[in-house]
């Protein structure tokens, strides 16, 4: 009984485990089946922008930048992606690689010139999507943007510009460059249709214009004629330029000579004025020198006269002093002779002088002549020599002592 009970328990456990495992497998299968419907993974690459649509909210108003998004529930949401990188649209008759450009085969644009000539224009447009307008583009265009938006506007602008020109003007040279520039300006105008709708044109190039071969021959002939005319015009202009150059050189030489003559005239005037001023300055300096010399001479004469006057005054004062001294000395001598016995002293001195004067005189006096011959005695002889018989006694005068 116990063995049966254990067997039943084991079978019961096996059944229970199998049921649980089966349920887990069923759950995993259900998850894998329902996962794409419940959770969707959407990736917006680095050169793309995304626009999200949902069942309940419709198109979302804001674009989705590059990253990976988990959409839940996935079955009700869809992420649309648009490239933001530069794209190329062509209209030409060349075979092109669809990987690098969008367009149609053999699709050069046929327009007519202003005079009615057919022109097959091959062109190339580089463009990209404005990410800020991608939601509007998704709502209005969504796919085939180059066919639905770009082609019609490019054709209209090219036609508007090409039909204003003659075929020879648009075919080559400056005319072709001008046509290409005008089309590019019209396509990139901030108020243009493409710009306002979210298409940014980065570059526009006319690859070439194909015309009727007969008309090309006429164009060639016209161009040759134009080249000849231009050559003649250039030769004429060159001759005129040479003449103008010679005239300009002559005018320049004349002006140079006039300027030099005027310069020499001005230099002569300036030199004359300079010499006149120098002469006036020299005369003025000479005059001043003469005046200074005269003043110096006058001062010299004044100084010399003053010196002479002072010297003479000093000399006179000296002479006067000497005279006064001599007069005083003479007065004193005379005063000395006026005292008693002075007369006898004088007579003695006279006799001595006389004797001295005649001591060597020989042959003039008699041998027996002596001093006494002149008088009865020595004193009488002296008196006879002096020419007087008696001496008057001088009156003694009271004299004041001389002040030193």
Automatic annotation (TrEMBL):
UniProt-listed InterPro entries: Band_7, Prohibitin
Domain annotation Band: ranges: 43-245
Lineage top rank: taxon: Bacteria
Gene Ontology, cellular component aspect: membrane
Keyword Flavoprotein in record: no
Keyword Cytoplasm appears in the UniProt entry: no
Keywords: Coiled coil, Membrane, Transmembrane, Transmembrane helix
Coiled coil location: 231-264
Protein name, per record: Band 7 domain-containing protein
Upper taxonomic lineage: Bacteria, Pseudomonadati, Pseudomonadota, Gammaproteobacteria, Thiotrichales
Transmembrane portions of the chain: 20-39
């Amino acid at each position: 009984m116990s063995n049966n009970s254990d067997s039943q328990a084991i079978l019961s456990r096996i059944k229970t485990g199998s049921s649980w495992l089966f349920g887990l497998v069923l759950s995993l299968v259900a998850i894998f089946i329902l996962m794409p419907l419940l959770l969707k993974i959407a990736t917006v690459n680095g050169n793309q922008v995304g626009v999200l649509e949902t069942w309940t909210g419709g198109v979302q108003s804001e674009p989705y930048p590059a990253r990976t998004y988990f959409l839940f529930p996935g079955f009700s949401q869809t992420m649309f992606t648009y490239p933001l990188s530069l794209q190329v649209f062509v209209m030409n008759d060349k075979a092109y690689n669809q990987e690098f450009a969008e367009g149609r085969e053999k699709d050069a644009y046929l327009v007519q010139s202003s005079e009615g000539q057919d022109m097959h224009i091959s062109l190339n447009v580089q463009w990209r999507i404005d990410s800020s307008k991608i939601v509007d583009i998704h709502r209005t265009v969504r796919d085939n943007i180059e066919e639905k938006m770009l082609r019609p506007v490019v054709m209209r602008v090219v036609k508007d510009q090409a039909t204003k020109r003659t075929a020879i003007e648009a075919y080559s040279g400056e005319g072709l460059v001008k046509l290409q520039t005008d089309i590019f300006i019209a396509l990139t105008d901030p108020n243009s249709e493409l710009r306002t709708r979210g298409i940014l044109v980065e570059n526009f190039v006319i690859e070439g214009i194909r015309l009727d071969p007969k008309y090309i021959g006429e164009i060639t002939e016209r161009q040759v004629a134009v080249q000849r005319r231009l050559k003649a015009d250039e030769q004429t202009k060159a001759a005129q330029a040479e003449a103008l150059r010679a005239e300009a050189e002559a005018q320049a030489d004349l002006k140079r000579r006039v300027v030099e003559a005027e310069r020499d005239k001005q230099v002569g005037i300036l030199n004359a004025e300079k010499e006149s001023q120098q002469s006036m300055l020299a005369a003025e300096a000479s005059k001043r020198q003469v005046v200074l010399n005269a003043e110096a001479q006058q001062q010299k004469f004044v100084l010399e006269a003053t010196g002479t006057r002072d010297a003479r005054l000093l000399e006179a004062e000296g002479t006067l002093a000497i005279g006064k001294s001599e007069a005083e000395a003479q007065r004193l001598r005379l005063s000395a002779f006026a005292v008693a016995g002075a007369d006898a002293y004088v007579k003695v001195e006279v006799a001595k002088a006389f004797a001295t004067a005649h001591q060597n005189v020989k042959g003039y006096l008699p041998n027996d002549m002596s001093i006494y011959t002149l008088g009865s005695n020595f004193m009488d002889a002296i008196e006879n020599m002096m020419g007087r018989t008696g001496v008057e006694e001088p009156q003694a005068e009271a004299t004041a002592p001389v002040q030193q």
